[in-house]
Amino acid sequence: MSTAAEPEAATTAVPQPQSPEKQLGSFEAAMKLFHARELRQARELFLQAAEGPERDVAHRAQLHAAMCNRRLEQATPDLRSAEDYYTYGVAQLNARNVAEARAHLEHALQLAPGADHIYYALALAQALGGDLAGAHENMKRAIELEPRNRIMARQDADFAPLANEPPFDVLLYPERKSW
User: Fold this and answer.
1) Cα 33 from chain centroid?
2) What is the per-residue pLDDT across 75-121, written as a single tens digit (0 to 9) for each?
3) Is the C-alpha dihedral spanning 147, 149, 154, 160 positive or negative?
4) b/e map of 4-40 (b: 16 or more CB within 10 Å)?
5) Within 13 Å, how many C-alpha atoms sit on residue 73's CB side?
6) 122 domain-assigned
7) For residue 72, what pLDDT band results from cuts at 50, 70 and 90?
8) Most buried of 10, 70, 95, 146, CB within 10 angstroms?
9) Average pLDDT of the segment spanning 52-69
10) CA 135 from chain center: how many Å?
11) Which DSSP letter does residue 159 get?
12) Residues 98 and 163 in one domain
C-alpha cells in the first residue's frame, strides 16, 4: 500500500538504448562463440546485437542468429550400430570437432570392442586432442588387431607430427630399434 507521499514503484524496467560500442562488443563476443560452436550462447548475443543502433551490425547479427537457429535445428543423426557411431565420429574428426568425435568413437568401441579401425580412429582423435598416452595405447591395439594399421599410420598426415616422437616412433617404426 503506498501513501500519497511515496511514489509508486515501477513494475517494469524501461530498456535503455544500446550504444554502438556495446552492440559491436556483443557482436564480436557472439562471433567468438559462433566459431567455437557455442551456438546457443552466440545466438543470444547476436539477438542482442541485432537490437543496436548500427544497421550494418544489426543486419549481420540477424543473419548470424538465423545461421545459429538453422544449425541448432538440424536433426541429430539416428546412430544405432558401431559402424554408425564410427562413421559419424570420423565425420566429426574430419570437421575437427575432436571432443565430439572422440565421444562417438568411444561409444562405437563399446559396441564393437574388437574393431581395429575404431581403435585407429580413436587413437587419431586422442592424438589431435592432446591425449598422447591414450592415442598410443589405442594405436598399439589397432596394430595388434591388424598389422596393416602400422603402414596406414605411417602414411597418415594427421599422425605425421607424432611419427618420430616417443613412444610412437617405436610403435610405427619398430625396425628402427637400435640394439
Assistant:
1) 12
2) 567 899 999 999 999 999 998 889 999 999 999 999 999 999 999 99
3) negative
4) eeeeeeeeeeeeeebeeeebbbbbebbbebbeeeebe
5) 7
6) yes
7) confident
8) 146
9) 93
10) 18
11) T
12) yes
Q: Taking 80 as the threshold, does the pLDDT of residue 37 lie above it?
A: yes
Residues 66 and 86 in one domain: no
Asked if 73 contacts 61 with a C-beta cutoff of 8 angstroms, the reply is no
Only one residue has cell 501513501, namely 3
Q: Same domain for 172 and 86?
A: yes
Q: Tell me how far apart the alpha carbons of residues 162 and 159 are, in angstroms, rounded to a whole number.
A: 5
Residue 87 sits in which domain range? 82-176
User: Which pairs count as long-range contacts for 35-42, CB under 8 Å and 24+ apart, including other chains?
Assistant: 37/97, 39/68, 39/71, 39/72, 40/68, 40/72, 42/68
CA-based nearest residue to 59, from 68, 49, 67: 49
pLDDT at position 18 over 80: yes
Q: Are residues 65 and 139 in the same domain?
A: no
Q: What is the pLDDT of residue 75?
A: 57
- When pLDDT is averaged across residues 139-168 and rounded to a whole number, the result is 92
The cell for 96 is 575437427
